[in-house]
Amino acid sequence: MAVIMYVDFPHKKIWGKEMANQMKELAQSITKEPGFIWKFWTESKKEEMAGGVYMFDSRENADQYLKMHSQRLAEFGYSDIRGKIFEINNELSTIGKAPF
């Protein structure tokens, strides 16, 4: 069953187009992760936070990715990384026009 994963962390560096340019290879690599379906990249310059909302095909694949991604972010110097995984209520999400 598909799941949604939310990740955020304090971020004070680059934003917008500059972030897109510098993170392009990372964005492309994420699409090759087992079970990956999609990702919305999130950023808030005002709150100095970055992260994303992901959809994976299973909790197992999301758990594996979250563990690897949290380690990678820590290696990049980030801390206070928060990640949560949620099951999806397909019926209500379909009514809400979720991008399945």
Topology diagram in text:
Layout: E1 3-10, H1 16-22, H2 24-30, E2 36-44, E3 49-56, H3 59-75, E4 82-87, H4 90-95
Antiparallel strand pairs: 1-3, 1-4, 2-3
GO molecular function: monooxygenase activity
Protein name: Monooxygenase
Pfam families: ydhR
Overview of the structural elements:
With 100 residues, this protein is an alpha+beta fold. It has one domain: Alpha-Beta Plaits (2-Layer Sandwich). Helix content is 37%, strand content 31%. The protein contains four helices and four strands; from the N terminus they run βααββαβα. The chain has helices at residues 16-22, 24-30, 59-75, 90-95; strands at 3-10, 36-44, 49-56, 82-87. The chain has a four-stranded antiparallel sheet, covered by helices on one side. Strand 2 (36-44) and strand 3 (49-56) form a beta hairpin.
Quick recap of the structure?
Helix content is 37%, strand content 31%. It is α+β, with helices and mostly antiparallel strands.
Could you estimate the helical fraction of the residues in percent?
25-40%
Supply the number of helical segments: 4
Which radius of gyration do the C-alpha atoms yield?
14 Å
Number of strands: 4
What is the N-to-C order of secondary-structure elements (H for helix, E for strand)?
Answer: EHHEEHEH
Q: Descriptors for this entry?
A:
single chain, 100 residues, Alpha-Beta Plaits, 4 helices, 4 strands, 37% helix
